[in-house]
């Protein structure tokens, strides 16, 4: 296998790690119906949080390397738009979702003394995060389409 092929494989695997986790984690969190299920869901999603970080780093390195190997640089509009949308996605996840999730995790961890009922604060806080998660997921879909189709 050539270096180009190997880089493409790593680039695609990193994409799966980033996108797969971003789509699965909200589903896991939203499926919890009791406080103990919430705590369990947050333990799982906290462990899964490493995948997008590693995948994102591999994605960045392989993407830049692929741009150099193919001598494409930033000459393609689809690539420039993909990079811009990726930056927006990183800001959405890292700057908007993650800080709010820390607050929600604190609410869930403090709810241990309240039995197994889901705290009302959790429900209210999650309603504010759902649109942000949906935005991040739409950005991921748009980026994937741009990378596969390369429309312009």
Beta-strand content: under 5%
Structural class: mainly alpha
Poorly predicted runs:
none
What is the end-to-end distance?
29 Å
The 3D shape can be described as elongated
Sheet with the most strands, sense and barrel status: none
State the helical fraction. over 70%
* Total number of helices: 5
Secondary-structure element string:
HHHHH
What does the radius of gyration come to? 18 Å
Average pLDDT score:
87
How many beta-strand segments? 0
Task: Describe, in plain words, how this protein is organized in 3D.
This protein has 152 residues and is an all-alpha fold. It contains five helices and no strands. It has helices at 3-31, 35-48, 50-69, 77-110, 120-149. Helix 1 (3-31) packs antiparallel against helix 2 (35-48), helix 1 packs antiparallel against helix 3 and helix 1 (3-31) packs antiparallel against helix 5. The protein starts with a helix and ends with a helix. The mean pLDDT is 87.
How are the SSEs ordered, and which strands pair?
Blueprint: H1 3-31, H2 35-48, H3 50-69, H4 77-110, H5 120-149
Quick synopsis:
The protein is mainly α.
Characteristics of this structure?
152 residues; 5 helices; elongated
